Amino acid sequence: MSITKEDILKKYFGYDSFRPQQAEIIDTVMRNEDCLVLMPTGGGKSVCFQIPALLRPGLTVVISPLIALMKDQVETLKGNGIEAAYLNSTLSFSEQDHIMWRAKIGELKLLYIAPERLFSGNTFDFLREWNVNLFAVDESHCISSWGHDFRPEYRQLNLIKQRFPKVPVIALTATADRVTRRDILKQLGIEHAETFVASFNRPNLSLSVLPGRQRLPQIQRFIKKREGQSGIIYCLSRKNTETVANSLNKAGLSAAHYHAGLPAETRSRVQEEFLRDDVQIIVATVAFGMGIDKSNVRWVIHYNLPSNVESFYQEIGRAGRDGTPSDTVLFYSYMDIITRQEMINNSEQSDEQKELLHAKLNRMKQYAEADICRRRILLSYFNEAVEQDCGNCDVCQNPRTRFDATVIAQKALSAITRTNEKIAMSMLIDILRGSQNRSILQHGYDRLPTFGVGRDLRTDEWAEYIGQLLNSGAMDIAYDEGHAFKLNPFSKQILRGERKIELVKFIPLAERKAREEEL
Ligand code: ADP
Ligand code: ZN
Description:
By secondary structure, the chain is an alpha/beta fold. The protein has 23 helices and 17 strands.
């Protein structure tokens, strides 16, 4: 009797059954049909091409941009008794020659290769002699300029179908919205490919967003409630990873920092320590986590707002891979949006690309400012319809209400006018709340008619509502003038009473229910 895909799953990978979609995908590939696989990180994409590679005669070529991960992936396969190798710039020329020779004499089942390596020299021409029977394009969203990680060298992959029309192509990605999906198929020349979309829902992950103020004390309380549990804190800047890790260590917690600027030995040591549970918390930039297969990460905190929903989803997806309840927290403030916008504006991208990045950032903002179930927003991004509210996000647990905030807006806007549009957040709040601090007195702001008109709201409430006013376009901010607030036509209409504005009722932390109360 011939060997089946189930035999291979058991024999080489040690698993008894397939996860949803895996078997169908493998069957499709075995019928020589092209396909596109969308599965969240950790969903089990690899076996979808590794098992066909073992069932078919000849070689499977796996194209991946993640050079740093190839070695590990190949070592794991070899450890399972599979003839695999990789070709990339980290190998010496003689090592590369040896591998190409092994491919030629048919000794290899899987060959991992980076796209730039595939198209350098005459490697692509050698493929003809290697009896290639399947192409797997991993991280295939990199081929699309609509994706969040476009890599121009991926564009040459259109040559695959042109040169090898009979060899099936399996494209895989964890992150592709509808436009990107269509573009992947088009760019690879596999428009008729069947698309498999595994569910992106991870019901065991709780979702919450907290106002981005006094993040460190909040984080410390959060961690202390979760003694010994592994977690990851994502920060925007390298420097911040170190600052946050140091402060956690000072508070008696076990934390290490990680970013791409650290020496390779340090990075792999930190990673090892985390995997072995010798260190409890990793404070890292987004450089951390790719290819890390740790099942018992119990929480992920975003210290800063990610640049898009795809990245956010991938990063929170590193928690709770074992299916056990795990928590995710995003800190959010209007300054994070501004920082991200500035990063896009100052980048070297084309105008068209900038527009796309802004649109993607906007979707992330919608998630952060949601007043409906956050999981619905997240899954709708991946074109997955959800019938019911999830019950496991902070909005479900603390339903938001909107209220007429025209008077609040008028107070803030008139304080901005009276100070000639020169003040930023903290000064504005001080004026509204009537603080008698030195700077206020120096400027004579205590003599303004608006001084103290907002005493009825606490500082955190004002900060929240002003952030909401900004984000809803009721006022502007001048990045180049110390982030001073400015009026726009919408603000003037509100001030004149010609337009009303609604805001989402702020619920102080202490009054929030369930998980968040633990923070
Ligand atoms: P992805 O590439 O989608 O991020 P991987 O292919 O690395 O995910 O798989 C994630 C983990 O799930 C790996 O440890 C893998 O061995 C495991 N896995 C894959 N398929 C199965 C299965 N059918 N049953 C149990 N575990 C599986
Ligand atoms: Zn919900």
